[in-house]
Design goal:
It is a single chain. Helix 6 crosses helix 13. The chain contains 18 helices and 13 strands. It is an alpha/beta fold and 438 residues long. Strand 4, helix 11 and strand 5 form a beta-alpha-beta unit. Strands 1-4-5-13 form a four-stranded mixed sheet, sandwiched between helices. The relative contact order is 0.14. The chain has three domains: 47 residues, Up-down Bundle (Transferase, Pyrimidine Nucleoside Phosphorylase, Chain A, domain 3); 258 residues, Nucleoside phosphorylase/phosphoribosyltransferase catalytic domain (Pyrimidine Nucleoside Phosphorylase, Chain A, domain 2); 89 residues, Aldehyde Oxidoreductase, domain 3 (Alpha-Beta Complex), CATH 3.90.1170.30. The structure holds uracil.
Length: 438
Amino acid sequence: MRAVDVIARKRDGSELTAEEIRWFVESYVSGNIPDYQVAAWLMAVYLRGMTRRETVDLTLAMAHSGDMLDLSGVVGYAVDKHSSGGVGDKTTFVVLPLVAACGVPVAKMSGRGLGFSGGTLDKLESIAGYRVELTLEEFRSQAEQYGIVLCGQTSNLAPADGLIYALRDATATVSCVPLIASSIMSKKIAAGANGVVLDVKVGMGAFMRTVEEAKALAHLMVDIGRDAGRDMVALISDMNQPLGVAVGNALEMREAIETLRGEGPQDLREHCLTVAAHMVRLARQNQAEDTLVEIIQELTEHLESGAALAKLRDLVSAQGGDTRMVDDPDLLPAARIVETLEVPANGYVAQINALEVGQAAVELGAGREKKGDPIDHTVGVLCHLKVGDQVKKGDLSFTIHANEADRLEAARRRLERAVDYRRRPQAPLPLFYDTLTG
Ligand code: URA
């Protein structure tokens, strides 16, 4: 086989065979096809698309390009979640302890943030000492001993995705449904989960801008997972405004801890309870009497009793982090300058552009413009408004946490543009648009 022929066939709109796709991926990972040919192929895929069958074959080829974890001997049924990324999304820090408190083991590998969308590992590292890099052996034994583990992907987990994602980033081929679906699902399949809950975000602060696009991506990922023998649920959730209040690493960690204490913003709490309930229901697949409502009740009790917070403490302790920061979030690292913004006139909140809020946090130093950039864990934004709120002139709109005056100024300008106020009442946004089970 020759790479140039595979590229030409895709360029001309042909459906590639499973063998061609497997060979292309394997040859790239083993260094036998150069970046420039894969880049050309990615653009052909971007322009011509892929059939469902091609996308499944691409996903499996990428999943099998490295280690395939099997946790069945360790935790029985492994359940995982994935968020397609957004602004203020600290769900994982609340959901994993909640699910573990129900006696369902959770073993998750996560990534770093890029652009406006924050990353789980970056947020975790605001807890002093927390070790995000574990060996496979540590990952397995912590899952067995504590029933909760949260770390970075091991370097040999779906290595084809790491290589291809870097090329996509540099060749304007990221926003392509078959490429996104295969990227996400190859890592989930390789990480060994039996059941996966996908939290597919839609709106201004997400990769998918319309509910239709998000549903198309979710359906494809659910189909891929089911073809690979996994139980799947996809939630289509709103990302037009930030989730919760905090955007920025240590600020989000504090909010997650507050939520686990039974406090925290209502939208975040409800969102986390829903995601966690779907995970628990997947794991208890033989207990038909467990309805979502009953599981949410059980999860709520774990929030109120402190059992879920205790699981976060177990997690932080097992991975070398400073558990005093869980018990007293005032010990989390903090920025030097704190400044507030006010609502300019009486009215109703019609829109909070989540993308602008996410970009303001990046401008302050909370995120990275390109891979490998350093980040500042202390800075970020608190957004005190929700779409539909009635507000008065002088109400608090944002709190900015900054370390440098010029960055503060840039963030302030962006945040002033981010909110659209109207005179007439505005409908609030839903948390979820749909649930797909395949
Ligand atoms: N997240 C991923 O892991 N891959 C993508 O392509 C997009 C979001």
